[in-house]
Amino acid sequence: MRVFRSNTSPDVARAATDALRSLGDSARSAIPLLAAEPVPTNARDSLSALLGELGTDEAADALLGLTEASRPASPDVYLRALGRTGSPRALYALLRTATERETATTRQTSFGAIATATPARRSAALRAIDSWVQRRGALEAGALDPLLVILREVQRAPTSSSVPARAAAPASSPDLLLVIRLIGSTRNPRAPSALAPLLASADRAQRIAVAQSLTRVGIANVERAVVALLSDNAPPVRSAACDALARFGDRVALDALWSAWDGDRPIDRASAAIAIGRISERLRDGSRAQRLIAALDDARPAVASAIVDAIGALAAAGSQPAIDALERVANARGPLSNAAVEALSNAAANAAPAARAPIVRALTQRASATNDEPTRSTAVWGLGASPEPDAVTLLLAATRDPSNAVATNALGALARAVRSGLRGTDALRSAACEALGRRANPALRTNALSLLAAARQRCDSDVARRALTDARSPWLRRAAAEAVLNAADNNTRAAANEALGRCAATDRTPWVAERCRVLSGQPSAAPERGPEPIDALVLGEDEDAPAVASAYVLFRPDGLARFGVTGSTGWLHERPSPAGEYAIYDPTQLANEP
Q1: pLDDT tens digits for range 110-123
Q2: pTM, entire model
Q3: What confidence tens digit (pLDDT) does each residue in 147-182 have?
Q4: Domain limit, last residue, from 137, 152, 176
Q5: 347: Cα within 13 Å, side-chain hemisphere
Q6: Could you tell me the sign of the dihedral formed by the alpha carbons of 16, 21, 24, 27, in that order?
Q7: The total number of structural domains that make up the chain
Q8: Is residue 439 assigned to a domain?
Q9: Strand, coil or helix: what is 573?
Q10: Could you please report the per-residue DSSP string of 232-293?
Q11: Is 32 within the bounds of a domain?
């Protein structure tokens, strides 16, 4: 720590910062004390960044208490560090900095933040608030009013002559788009009324930002205005509106969607179908399935794929006509067959127990028939929603399938079933250990270890302990950590904790190290969140168009992996969906494990 008290080079200061960071809790408590003394110029950026990483009120107080002589010369560095603390005290300072209007004379804010709120200073404060949101997940509802003040200030900014008169701000104004998104992150019920007028903007980027913001806060009383965006001439705007409706639309939004569906004005019918399905699923309303089924025959491929997905949502709501329609599409063995099976798979996971049996029977027929590999692997994955004996028997046989996709999904489905109440047996252990003994695919090995972890069993060779240190794939190392802990008994508990401790200290992937740290008994730094529906658009290599009929491997935050194939729309849907980070890979890019 003496480095920070001497005028040293930036490189040395950064090295000292890394050393303090690696010391962990033993140094964390002493770091804010450094801010109480004058900080040499070359060490100010490193110290501020380190305080920001601590994520504590004490670190925020230390930053706010820095004298003018100890603050970084760059406002961006200082404000970003304040934002990264995630402290309410820092948030108030940042909001005050951003809302201060520019004056003729230089003056300090009452929080000692920086100086005058010039447009550049305001931009820096907004970016710092965004960092605060990324740390905490959402703004406090009380932040809405300061943000509305900032919104008015940003809207007063002069517009270029090339921008239509009815645009609220030029498309090149990142501050306006950022403020709009931050307003949504307050989740304040008054936010939609402030955002609704901006839906009429001529600026496409602004309409997208408003629709995205509404996905955060909920739509309240602007459902019909958002439905109107499904006629927008910009595909990203239609996609964002669909997302807003799908996530938060209620009965009024559903009625507005059906009116638009039957109306004379052209709308993006694929987006409308997806939104109808998601809202119907949430409301458990399968009453209007026939209207979607009737539109299926004449729909173009992308719309037909979206309709199939929406019918799957209605099937989850208990609609027998929807289940029957999906079976017919699956049996047709056409281009929508896999999409229909995936819809059945998601429906099985979401359906009430009384409605699940016919869906599981339909999936069992698909999984056991001589269908193509993608269809069988999708059906096998869906069977994880049911621990029924027939499904378990079929899944055990599928773990030995020559196809890595089918075997991987079968192991993952068994792990899901065990987590849902299926009792761990020797047959499950044998299936997992056999797969680990003769397969090198990292996704398959990840699911095999996850199955062992769920069943609280281990193989004779203790492959999990070796994978925890030697596996190339971080997802495999994470699954190994779970397996090492869950298979430990009184005699091996100490050794398991020691292995997890080494993983927490040395693993090269931060989120794997964090998971090992939590499993070893230390509290998690991240708040727990409930399941969230996952709907992701898979893009092609040029990242400009959807990847149609493309194979993928989806790694989930609960430690499971799933093989799948995108449909005609490029979308994938995952139900149930644990909260956290997901990753999508091209199966051909996954290196085999030793």
Answers
A1: 333 333 457 777 88
A2: 0.69
A3: 888 888 888 765 544 444 444 445 548 888 999 999
A4: 137
A5: 40
A6: positive
A7: 2
A8: no
A9: strand
A10: -SSHHHHHHHHHHHHHH--HHHHHHHHHHHHSSS---HHHHHHHHHHHHHHHT--TTHHHHH
A11: yes
